[in-house]
Inverse folding.
């Protein structure tokens, strides 16, 4: 498929052509975009490679207009890719990643990547980033947020100071409030979410590689304790973090960027952020 | 499975062809998926069904309408008539790739309206199996809007008024053109009258307000699919898929 801005090719690759992905290429000749990394969109949850409300398709095609190639891929057992029943979650992810990198290097001769994804896709990107030197960027949408150690206690004390909120019939049901005060509701997980240490190591690796990371949180992250812009940076507390890693908080957006104006805002943010790769040494 | 793009430049559709796993396959099944978020929610189920049908020695083609899935374009640039055209293109492409003259259709929800409008006059379609067909375009859009409004009320309480107003323009989160909405409003159950009744087979779940056309082979299965829900939960009801499989593989 092609138009004036981009071309798309279907790749069926890996062992027994197990994996299926769509490679989006800018119409510009490769010589004009030699240094730009390739975005890899990792499928999220049980949804297939187009992403919720076609989010990955829109991102891939928008990035192509800026000269970036990308692959949106169904990980094993999702969408049109066959499963690897013999392997566990992380083993499957690593096996898939090996095949993804291999096809991109063979097809594009490219060896720098930006791992991208929403929810479990973002978590998987964090899991993969640390150990692969070729990963120089992360585009994370609502990854698992691990609040700092004192968070639960502070949240509980804050709620104790304002008991009226629990008794307000116009507010949530009492038991839900109490549960929320004592627990951080676990998000729906497809895969193994990274621990705080693992996320930290991934961001550290990006900083050391002088790469770029952009993390976008939505209102849904509040269930995990993310309620204020800058919280991730504080939790990571890495030297040089803010120089390489951006953070955005779409406090009114749903987890899957359910509304068109949120998706458009996201596309704008990603486009501005990705432009920095053009200036990278 | 072989995936490919087909159709004219700038209107290319994404197709997935499942060749028969045994024999030379005399029957092609084209799957017309549902629309909007229902499409992603049924992707897994329809893929599984396609694989099962191909294992019985039949050809299967799945495809994405223009502006949806991996196909070309943005949703808001297209209309219902484009999608009706896409059904014909998919059948034509399926015939070409499979070399089959016998074609049957599985159409889901509003995909059933598109399939019946598109193929009404075609005498060479052997059978149309419809899963929870939509009978009224206006009511269908209204139901999605209702679910969207409920979602905005419950999940997006901190939104500003302007965000809320803008969000209310979306159909289940999708931005569509006014032209498409108008075309939807004009769709009704008369689309099903275009097809000879003996070619239609309706598999209806116990969904609220399900459409049961008179004089057509119809079965109601007690496994409700929550179609009217804008969230991305997956629809994958095993007993319904088994019944659809039986309908599509009986000789």
């Amino acid at each position: 498929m092609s138009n004036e801005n981009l071309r798309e090719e279907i790749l069926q690759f890996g062992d027994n052509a197990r994996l299926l992905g769509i490679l989006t290429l800018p119409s510009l000749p490769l010589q004009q975009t030699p240094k730009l990394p390739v975005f890899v969109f990792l499928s999220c949850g049980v949804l297939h490679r187009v992403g919720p409300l076609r989010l990955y398709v829109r991102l891939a095609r928008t990035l192509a207009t800026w000269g970036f190639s990308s692959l949106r891929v169904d990980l094993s057992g999702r969408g049109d890719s066959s499963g690897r029943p013999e392997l566990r979650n992380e083993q499957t992810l690593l096996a898939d990643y090996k095949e993804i990198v291999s096809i991109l290097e063979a097809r594009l001769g490219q060896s720098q990547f930006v791992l991208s994804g929403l929810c479990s896709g973002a978590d998987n990107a964090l899991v993969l980033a640390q150990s692969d030197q070729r990963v120089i960027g992360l585009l994370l949408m609502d990854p698992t947020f691990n609040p700092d150690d004192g968070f639960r206690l502070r949240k509980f004390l804050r709620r104790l100071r304002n008991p009226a909120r629990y008794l307000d019939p116009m507010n949530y049901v009492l038991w839900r409030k109490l549960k929320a005060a004592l627990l951080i509701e676990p998000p729906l997980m497809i895969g193994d979410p990274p621990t705080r240490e693992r996320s930290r190591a991934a961001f550290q690796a990006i900083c050391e590689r002088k790469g770029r990371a952009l993390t976008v949180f939505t209102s849904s992250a509040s269930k995990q304790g993310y309620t204020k812009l800058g919280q991730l940076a504080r939790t990571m507390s890495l030297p040089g973090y803010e120089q390489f890693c951006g953070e955005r908080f779409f406090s009114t957006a749903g987890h899957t960027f359910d509304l068109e104006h949120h998706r458009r805002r996201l596309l704008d943010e990603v486009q501005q952020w990705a432009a920095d790769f053009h200036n990278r040494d | 499975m072989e995936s490919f793009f087909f159709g004219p430049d700038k209107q290319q559709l994404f197709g997935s062809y499942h060749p028969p796993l045994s024999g030379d396959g005399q029957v092609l099944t084209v799957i017309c998926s549902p629309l909007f978020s229902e499409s992603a929610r049924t992707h897994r189920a329809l893929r599984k069904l396609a694989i099962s049908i191909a294992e019985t020695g039949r050809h299967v083609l799945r495809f994405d309408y223009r502006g949806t899935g991996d196909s070309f374009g943005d949703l808001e640039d297209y209309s219902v008539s484009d999608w009706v055209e896409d059904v014909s293109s998919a059948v034509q492409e399926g015939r070409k790739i499979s070399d089959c003259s016998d074609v049957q259709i599985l159409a889901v929800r509003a995909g059933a309206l598109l399939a019946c409008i598109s193929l009404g006059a075609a005498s060479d379609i052997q059978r149309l199996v419809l899963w929870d067909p939509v009978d009224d375009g206006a009511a269908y859009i209204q139901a999605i809007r209702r679910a969207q409004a409920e979602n905005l009320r419950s999940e997006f309480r901190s939104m500003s008024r302007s965000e809320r107003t803008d969000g209310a323009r979306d159909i289940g989160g999708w931005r569509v053109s006014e032209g498409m909405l108008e075309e939807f409003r004009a769709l009704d159950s008369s689309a099903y009258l275009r097809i000879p009744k003996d070619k239609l087979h309706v598999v209806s779940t116990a969904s609220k307000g399900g459409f049961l056309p008179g004089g057509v082979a119809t079965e109601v299965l007690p496994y409700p699919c929550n179609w009217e829900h804008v969230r991305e939960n997956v629809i994958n009801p095993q007993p319904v898929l088994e019944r659809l499989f039986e309908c599509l593989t009986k000789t």
